[in-house]
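Quick illustration, no need to memorize.
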Amino acid sequence: MELSNNLQTQRWLAVGLLAFIVLLVGLIIVVPIISKGLELHETKENLAFTLKKYEKILAGKGAVVSNIEAIKQQHQDQGYFNNQGTSALASAQMQEFIKQTIVQAGGQLSSTQVLPSTSKDKFNRITVSVRMTGNIEVLRAVLYKLETSTPLMVIDQLDIRPMRSIRNRLTRQIEPSNGLNINFQAIGFMRAQPQ
């Protein structure tokens, strides 16, 4: 009987050991596989969500491209940039416009000088140095006309000095002058021509 109990105990120990080994193998092999499967499933869900977002973005691509084209066309139509063929033609056009503006405002143009144009980011910067005389109202009218003109012109390095007063020969008194000597640079822009 003792032998049979001993065999029975050994069988139960063997079955318990086998169950323990199966459970251990399951924990070592099966659990990481299930864990990796769950991780891959979560990654798949994230990628699917991202894909749907990109599909929505791509669906709106046509509208965005057409809006960009409309904005470019509107920008062209506004005429902010000088559309002459060369910088020399653009600077000549600017000089003529400045001359007419000063004369119409009642001022006197002393000189204009074209400074070398500079290129930056697909644009040429055309600069004309201007010397003129006039009073404060003339200056206001000229600056307003230049800065609101099309194509766009920007005023830079404005230097205003009063004209020298004149002594009256009869009274020997210095008579004040409303005249101003005015120097400034007018800057216009044009798109750089392809090389």
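The chain has a mean pLDDT of 83.
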